[in-house]
Amino acid sequence: MIAGALDYRLPETVREATEQLAVEPRDTCVIGGGTWVVPWLASGERTAGRVVDLRRVAELRAIRATDDGVLFGATVTYSDLVRGDTSAGPLRLLALMARGVTGGVQIRNQGTLGGSFVAARPSSDAPTALVALDARAVVRGPGGERRLAAVELLAGAMRSALAPAELLTGFELPLQQDGGIGYVKLKRGASSWPLVTAATRLELDSSGRLEAVRLVVGGATATPLVIDVSTVLGSQGDVAVLAEVERRTSAAVVEPYADVLADGSYRAAVAPVVARRAVAMALADARRDRSGERR
Amino acid sequence: MVSDGLLGAAVRKQNGDRFLTGRIEYTGDLRMAGMAHMAVVRSTHAHARIVAIDTERARALPGVIALLTGEEALGLAEPIPHNLDPAGLGGQHAEIRCLAVDRVVYAGEPVAAVVAETAGEALAAARAVTVAYEPLPAVLNAQDALAPDAALLYPGWATNEMIAGETADGDFEQAALDADHVIDGELRIQRTSAAPMEPRTYLAAWDERAQRLSWFGTTQNPHPMRWVLAVALRLSESQVHVVAPPLGGAFGLKMHGHPEELLVAILSRMTGRPVRWAESRAECLLAAGREQRHRYRAAFDADGRIRGIEDELVADHGAAAAGPGWGMAFVASLAVGTGYDVQCCRVTYRVVVTNRAPWSGVRGFGKESANLLMETIVERVAETTGLDPVEVRRRNLVTADRFPYRTATGLDLDSGDYHSLLDKVLSKVGYTDARERQAVQRAAGRHVGIGIAFELTPEGADIPGALVGGYDTTTVKIAPTGHVTVLTGVTSPGNGNETAIAQLVAGRLGVPLELLDVVQGDSSLCPYGYGNLSSRSMITGGGSALLAADELGQKLRTVAARMLEATGPDAVVLRDGFAILVADEGHAIPIGAVAHAAHTLAFILALGIDPAMEATCTYRPPNIRHLPDEHGRISPFASFSNAVHAAIVEVDPETGVTVLRRHVVGHDCGTVVNPAFVDGQVYGSVCAGIGLALTEELLHDADGVLRTDGFKSYLLPRATDLPQIELLHQCTPSPFTALGMKGAGESGLGGAQAAIFNAINDALRHRGARIDALPASPARVFAALAQADQAVAA
Ligand SMILES: Cc1cc2nc3c(=O)[nH]c(=O)nc-3n(C[C@H](O)[C@H](O)[C@H](O)COP(=O)(O)OP(=O)(O)OC[C@H]3O[C@@H](n4cnc5c(N)ncnc54)[C@H](O)[C@@H]3O)c2cc1C
To answer: Which helix (H) or strand (E) is B186 found in, with range?
Structure first.
């Protein structure tokens, strides 16, 4: 039950949306899917006089190939990814992530990746996966458009770096070689938020040596943590690679995040395990890819 | 002659289609002309003085009709009558008001209430009420509350101890001297909630002209609820009409004593409007239960025979309440010993008030804790003696030839064959093979654990001095059309007992189920009853329905015999919709025709018998004993269902995450009326036990404010967390109750929790680790392993 009355807006273009948002930005709440906003308004965690619902803005729901990658709209839902053609490129990792989103078909149909990103919850899935893809965020405000590395849009736990009058319109995902992907999350049960997540993509050279790898750990810290694993490049033996991934992750988690589901020391202790499992998954995926097996 | 044609049939739930397709009317679906909505302003402090309540801004908001503070409510209602006053058993009495006056004692306590035209407007107004608090020192756990210098919750009390007592007093010290081994330990059980699908909802309508209150709501006990409202509102009980619409689960939460039950009524009288309140999930999760710490000792011999048990239970109740919650600590202490032949027990309990939301009734009602404690002890006996845990159970469980068996706490166990139930479960799970596989898996580094639990569930309680009755009443009547109506004092939390009662009556009267309606939950229509609690509905509601059906059946057969020119009622049988001549089955009259004739030809066909085509009977189980025995002990339960559980878990040693691989349960609740409903109860109860073992826990911040206020933080098991639950039945009828029925509804939970807990410790044992607290969260299991590794390294 939402307390009191709301001025509800349903714009059809990005321009209309930004205009409606610009009137009273501090008293306005943007809705992607509303799966966070509606419960917040109901519980009183957030109050707003106006909501601007983006669901009718068709351009925000598009996924488009560009010369240097994929342009990914802010209101693309998990179901869009699960149902769409995601057999190649950066969308593959997002689809893998999307398939594990909970809350049933209602949440997967309704929740948007943009909404998840702006909500900036450490335990959410999308931010970690998008940062692992090296996404750039596209932001539209009264002063025009700006682009920044997605990770920079995450200012802290539950805090985005968007200005009140700014809209996230989407993400640019750079083109990538086909390689291996891995996404692993640790939870307390099906209903629990993830405690720690890890998303990775990597490439092997023709002789099976690691040529490129990007590993991001979520939930262990307030914002997704890019783990520098450059020391494993060129390695071939999995055991050594995985041990190094664990060491690097362990060293990187300095100020662990804590919430009601798990304390910081536990998250710090298991983050290396989750990271290692994601990389192991990606290595297996890359080999399957190279051996021509169907994924 | 009577028949039991439908006994044991998996008849489908009456109205089941309406539940499934969303057409059933819950309280939240009811609409009344002029209905307004209530929202509650709740304390944001665990303990504080209320300095001022500013309602000005709220009153000015759109749609606001009325606003009520605790001060104002003082003149409008009496304190809430206690469901189970601890003072009656030598404890301390607390006066509970529907709204706090002067002082709040927990975060979430109702401080003011608002009525507005819409629920949203009521909520907005409630949020606009500003309360100035002066914080007072809060005690947030039982240990702090018992400290000599602890802040007191209630000024009139000498300590924060609500009640303490002893339920058994054996010579444990002697047993300890005689025994080969003595172990001690601590078991900490977490704070959890009932969490029904449907939160609490109430709708009250005061009729000023008739001076009558109609009250609709989520209550398990409509007649006692009527008493609460009448007493608190200074009305006669005949001025109050209570209706309990279908419930979406109750689990003990919906027993009376909640402030909002009264608030809607006060506000309806104040405003002249029907007033409804629907609880939010966050409010619903305030309701607590079960948090307790056991300090135990056990004395036993090298052969695994347990000589004695000592247990000190300390329950962290939260603030005092008018509900029956504290009784769970008392029942837990009564149930210690469960189905084991341990005559030397020393059991004490203490219920402590703290500055958190109070206990409400919750499924298991303390019995689950006793089972968990016993099964923990048995497992540790096995560990110490090197015996297989199954063998320790075999050597200590009460054998089938010893019933009725009086336990150390005075309970009279009715009947059972615990050993054969154990064997059935072991064979189903393939125990020997599972142990062999476990050894292989362990050698490969896997942490697989097997846990067994025996579970005893005392059911059908009658609590002396409280409106918690162990007997109940049913009226069965037949209309001239042949339509049968069953009016019963027991209610259904959604479990289908109305259908099972219908089955019994239909079987006895020989009428098809389609011609039979069961009416429950209406204080004006139904005979006085105690509703639904303590898995009592079939023993008492079914038992009284059988008696009433037989009495009415006797009348019908008398009338039919006269119509058929037979010798007397015994010459006629009621079956398949007909009154049939036993000696010549070709001669039969439709039962409807018999009913019609009885109504219209009473001076011919009903001469010499009571012509009313109805009967009202009460069933009182003969084995509840309130007169104390020579040790001062009573046995307040009508039946003792039992179960054996076997759980196989795998723990991920790198993360502490537990996965339940298999869960087998063998259940014995005596005669089963409808196996589909019993299965449903056991499945649900086992799932609840899985949640208690692994994930459920109410957690608060350092200021005592609840943080687990939704289902993403209060973690119930979901379908994908569960294995296929493998259920088998054994039937050992009770020699005492009608048809040999025992309660079904609560059993499952304590045993599942215990079996999983034991399985986890079994998985950790070879690493030298164990946990003594629940839930078995990944962090807790991980920490236990890390600690054991450190101990090895040191
Ligand atoms: C039962 C349940 C299960 C869930 N399971 C998961 C899960 O498994 N994994 C997971 O990650 N999350 C989960 N969620 C959380 C949430 O539903 C998702 O993260 C979802 O993607 C949030 O997106 P949304 O569009 O609904 O957000 P909204 O509620 O619409 O918005 C969230 C925030 O972002 C802002 N916002 C939204 N879109 C924009 C935009 N384009 N520009 C600027 N600001 C914007 C809003 O103002 C708000 O502050 C679950 C939620 C529920 C209720």
So the answer is: strand B181-189
- Measure in Å the smallest separation between the Cα of A102 and chain B Cα atoms: 10
- Establish if B661 belongs to a structural domain: yes
Q: How far apart are CA B178 and CA B610, in angstroms?
A: 66
A118 CA: nearest ligand 1 atom = 34
Q: What is the pLDDT of residues A239-258, one digit of tens each?
A: 999 999 999 999 999 999 99
Low-confidence spans in chain A with pLDDT less than 70: 289-290, 292-295
Checking if the pLDDT of B427 tops 70, the result is yes
**CA–CA dist B240, B256 (Å, integer):** 15
Q: What is the pLDDT of residues B7-62, one digit of tens each?
A: 899 999 988 999 999 999 999 999 999 999 999 999 999 999 999 999 999 999 99
Q: A74: CA distance to ligand 1 center in Å?
A: 11
Q: According to the model, what pLDDT value does residue A295 have?
A: 47
Say whether B778 and A270 touch across the interface (CB within 8 A): yes
Which of B692, B695, B787 to mutate against chain A (most A CBs within 10 Å)?
Answer: B695
What chain A holds in terms of domains, given with CATH numbers, is 1-171 (3.30.465.10), 180-291 (3.30.390.50)
Question: Which residue from B570, B518, B583 is spatially nearest to B544, judged by alpha carbons?
Answer: B518
User: Is the model's pLDDT at B386 over the cut of 90?
Assistant: yes
Q: Is A81 in the pocket of ligand 1 (CB under 6 A)?
A: no
Whose C-alpha lies nearest to ligand 1, atom 32? A115
Judging contacts by C-beta atoms under 8 Å, the chain A residues touching residue B779 are 262-263, 266
CA distance B672 to chain A (A): 34
DSSP 3-state of B537: helix
* Pair B613, B632 in one domain: no
> CATH number for the domain including B247?
3.90.1170.50
**Residue B178 counted as domain residue:** no
Average pLDDT over residues B679-703: 98
Question: Which of A21, A26, A36, A192 maximizes ligand 1 atoms within 8 Å of its Cβ, making it the mutation to test the pocket?
Answer: A36
Q: Looking at the complex, does the CB of residue B182 fall below 8 Å from at least one CB of chain A?
A: no
Do B427 and B528 fall into the same domain? Answer: no
> Which residue would you say has higher pLDDT here, B794 or B522?
B522
DSSP B713-767: TS----GGG-PPEEEEE-----SSSGGGB---SSTTHHHHHHHHHHHHHHHHHTT
The B residues from 67 to 126 touching A (CB cutoff 8 Å) are 119-121, 123-124, 126
pLDDT, tens digit, 9 for 90 and up, residues B571-607: 999 999 999 999 999 999 999 999 999 999 999 999 9
Q: Whose CA is nearest to atom 12 of ligand 1?
A: A124
Q: Is A128 in the pocket of ligand 1 (CB under 6 A)?
A: no
Residue B113 placed within a domain: yes
Contact B743, B641 (CB under 8 A): yes
Looking at the complex, report in whole angstroms how far the Cα of residue B690 sits from the nearest Cα belonging to chain A.
11
Whether residue B690 sits in one domain with residue B748: yes
> Percent of chain A beyond pLDDT 90?
84
CA-to-CA separations, B623 to A164, B282, B468, B535, B744, in angstroms, rounded? 70, 42, 16, 16, 18
Residue A4 to residue B119, Cβ atoms within 8 A: no
Ligand 1 atom nearest to CA at A36: 29
The answer to whether residue B678 is domain-embedded is yes
The verdict on the CB of residue A124 being under 6 Å from ligand 1 is: yes
Return the bridge partners of B306, or none.
B300
Instruction: Indicate whether residue A54 lines ligand 1 (CB < 6 A).
Output: yes
Contact between B458 and B635 under an 8 Å Cβ cutoff? The reply is: no
If you measure from the C-alpha of residue A35 to the centroid of ligand 1, how many angstroms do you get, rounded to a whole number?
A: 5
Write the pLDDT tens digit of every residue in B303-359.
Answer: 999 999 999 999 999 999 999 999 999 999 999 999 999 999 999 999 999 999 999
Output the pLDDT for position A289: 67
Q: Is the per-residue pLDDT at B1 higher than 50?
A: no
Chain B residues whose beta carbon lies within 8 Å of the beta carbon of residue A123: none
- What is residue B230's three-state secondary structure? helix
Contact B95, B157 (CB under 8 A): no
